[in-house]
Inverse folding.
């Protein structure tokens, strides 16, 4: 009986870990996309999107170093956004 209990505990523990990893990866992807939206809202003038007041953007600029780096990296490696999104949600 003890063996069965340990086996079931490991089985359900593995399922629990798998679900945690899947949910954490989706939350990380959502954070990445939220950072991209924030960068577009504040630095949208580079792509023709109406921007917030310049004073606000200049005050936020020191805090946006990582977002600017991510935007540059993504634009350099941009292939197919739909395929990347579909890969995140495991769509075949």
């Amino acid at each position: 009986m003890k063996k069965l209990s340990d086996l079931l505990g490991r089985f359900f523990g593995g399922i629990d870990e798998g679900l945690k990893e899947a949910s954490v990866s989706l939350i990380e992807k959502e954070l990445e996309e939220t950072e991209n939206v924030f960068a577009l809202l504040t630095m949208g003038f580079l792509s023709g999107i109406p921007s917030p007041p310049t004073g606000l953007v200049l005050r936020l600029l020191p805090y946006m170093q990582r977002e600017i780096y991510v935007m540059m990296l993504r634009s350099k490696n941009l292939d197919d956004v739909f395929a990347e999104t579909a890969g995140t949600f495991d769509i075949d």
About this structure: Residues 2-88 form one domain. The chain has a mean pLDDT of 78. DSSP finds four helices and no strands in the chain.
